[in-house]
Structures are given as structure tokens and as C-alpha cells.
Fold F-box domain-containing protein.
Amino acid sequence: MNGRREEYTYISLPLSIRLRKEHFDFLSSWRMPKLTHLELSNFIPYERLCCENVTRLSIRLTAIREQLDVQDLRVLFESMPRIQSLSITFGVDEPFDLVVRDGVRYDNDGPALPNLAHLNLEVEAMTPDDTINHFVALLNLQSLTHLSLSFFWDDRNCMEPAFEKWIGALTPCQYPMDKMPPTFARLEIFSLKTDGVRGSHRLFKQIFMSMPNVHVVSLNITYDADIFIDKEWVEGGALSQLRTLRIEVLQISPSSSPLSPRCLDALYKMKDCEQFKTLEFRISLHRNLRIEKKELQSLMRDKL
């Protein structure tokens, strides 16, 4: 604590993301030099706000009727160059409106938040992967040190292909790793929460290969998640700096479990992961895990 009282403002406009001109003129006339935290709910200003000292921004865009304009989002970000932490929720059915003015595609002008270190991204319903593509084009992902991803669905039949597209938008394939810097080169803390999706071995590999320096990983996954940390990942540069792995297993089945030691074989058998110190499991439903627990204890010893 530095002894200063931080100002906090919450703006919620549920009916439309756009204000009438006279209302926005009134809002833009405010001078908020001491404002450090700002929340916006279903509202994106189309001109700059006078709050250039904001360091933490939260935006929620869900169940809105209008198509989002990527330029409006860029203008908002560029009006707050000191932002270090961004929390954003997308729950939209339409992609961004990529307005071309004077031949310029605004989402490709380079990063709009040069000091961003923490990103909390939540994606709901059938948000198009194109929306995520153009959003991340506004950011410098290689500068992030903390990343939290949460994905939620209404239609279970569509969740697997949607998850694959969203992950593809966030972590494009970059093989071999020595030819281009990984997407999240400086990332130290990572968390992933999915709502019932299994994923695939290829997608989880794509995720972890993009963050070679991660120290702490927290996963909230289903009992049948298709994740297997194998030798190829580690040899490719993934998880070599991992210190703590936390796994919360949901919807656990008596006949299936991701707790099998073979799924973690590469972590405790290879010298590349000497930084790895802690493994935590959290299981939401009770069942007899004595055999798996005994096997893990014998393999992980004091790390478990």
C-alpha cells in the first residue's frame, strides 16, 4: 500500500454500447487525472476519455445488439497508455466491424497497450474466433507476464470446434520454436478454465509450446481432458521453467481419471524440468483415489 486512495469508477449502459452525442460530450468533458481503475459494461466510447492514468481496465461486452468497431477499442486503449492489467469478457455473436479509413486496417497498426503485463480473457457463447484474432492484434502478447483464460459455452455440441478456433487465434502454431519468438515469451503465470471441453493433445501442446518460461500453471479441466505432458513438449522447450502445477478436475468419472502418473511422466523423469517443485490436485467430486494418490506420492515424493 502506498497510502494513496485509488479512485474507482464503474460505467454500465445495458441497452446500447453507443451513447447519444450530447451524453458522450458530457462524459468526455470529465477530467479524471487520479482515476486508476475503470470498469466498462457494454459500453465502448468512440472518442478518447480523459483518464490517461488508468492502470487497470475491466470491460464486459455481452448480449449486445450492435457490431463492435475495432477502431473504437483501439482508441479506448490508446487513451490509457499506462494500463498494466486488462480484464475483458466477450460474449458476442458478430465479429468486429473492420472499418477501413484511408486504406488503413486499424487492428494491424501495432500494439495499443505498451505496458500491459496482466491479461484476463473470458470468452462466452459463440464469440467468433475472428473477434479474438483482431482483439489480440491490439496487444503485445510477448510482454505479458500473467495470463488467465476462461471459456464458456451454451451449446455443448459446438464447444470443441469453438475451443480449437479460439486457441488457434491466441496461440498460432510456431514450429520450430527457434525460428520465431514464442507468443508468450515472458509469461510466468498461466491459468486455463474450460466449461466441459476435452480439448486435444495437439491443442494443449500448442498452448504450452507458446510459453516456454512459465513458472506456475493452473488448469481447471474435465475428467476426460485430452492432456498428456510428454517428452516431445519438454524437448521442444515447453515447461522447462515450471515450478508449480495446479489441476482441478471437474465431472470426475469412476472409470476415467487424468491423475494417472503416465500423464505427467515427462515432468518428473526429465532433467529439463529441474525447476518443478509443486503439484496440486483439486477434485470437485468424491471417489476412491487411494491407488492413484499412492502412485503419485511414490513418484512425486515431496513435490506433491
In short: Residues 7-303 form a domain with the Leucine-rich repeat, LRR (right-handed beta-alpha superhelix) fold (CATH 3.80.10). The radius of gyration is 21 Å. Confidence is low (pLDDT under 50) at residues 1-5. DSSP finds eight helices and twelve strands in the chain.
